[in-house]
Amino acid sequence: MLKESVEKALNEQINAELYSAYLYQSMAAYFEDKSLAGFAHWMDLQAEEEQAHARKIYDFVNERGGRVVLEGIEKPKSDWNSNLEVFEDSLEHEEKVTAMINDLVALAEEEKDYATHSFLQWFVDEQVEEEDTFGEIVDKLRLVGDSTQSLFMMDDKLGARAEAPAEEE
């Protein structure tokens, strides 16, 4: 059984994951408008991944006898000054999500909720991967600068992203 404080924090994380999906879908729409289909595809898949993360937490709350309470999702940003800014914002957002996950881990430890602590380790590992991936794209966008040819090459590479395999339990 989940303690009230842990249940509340997990519900907040569900909302944060759904906001992440909404934000990345907004970024996909931005890239579609710029005729960068590869970037848009990459963000579409990222949005789907974030929805899967929300569902993973949703299912866990239910499995532990908790109550999922969905709240409104904040409107995401919809316009950026550059492709680089989109990914800088993404990286910054993932760093905030990492801090939220770390706070959840600390709360689970404080409440001696070892099942939740164990469950959250997957998200800790996932956030390392997320920050690394976004950071690498930011670095590459900084390197290519104003090179149209390089931008199109990146668009092709990002467009080749395959759908993520089913999330491991």
From TrEMBL:
InterPro entries: Ferritin, Ferritin-like, Ferritin-like_diiron, Ferritin-like_SF, Ferritin_DPS_dom, Ferritin_prok
Gene3D superfamilies xrefs: 1.20.1260.10
Annotated compartments: Cytoplasm
GO biological process: intracellular iron ion homeostasis; iron ion transport
Membrane-spanning ranges: none
Positions of Fe cation binding: 17, 50, 53, 94, 127
Residues in Ferritin-like diiron domain copies: 1-145
GO cellular component: cytosol
This enzyme's EC code(s): 1.16.3.2
PANTHER family: BACTERIAL NON-HEME FERRITIN, FERRITIN
Family note: Belongs to the ferritin family. Prokaryotic subfamily.
Chain's role: Iron-storage protein.
The protein's name in its UniProt record: Ferritin
Lineage start: Bacteria, Bacillati, Bacillota, Clostridia, Halanaerobiales
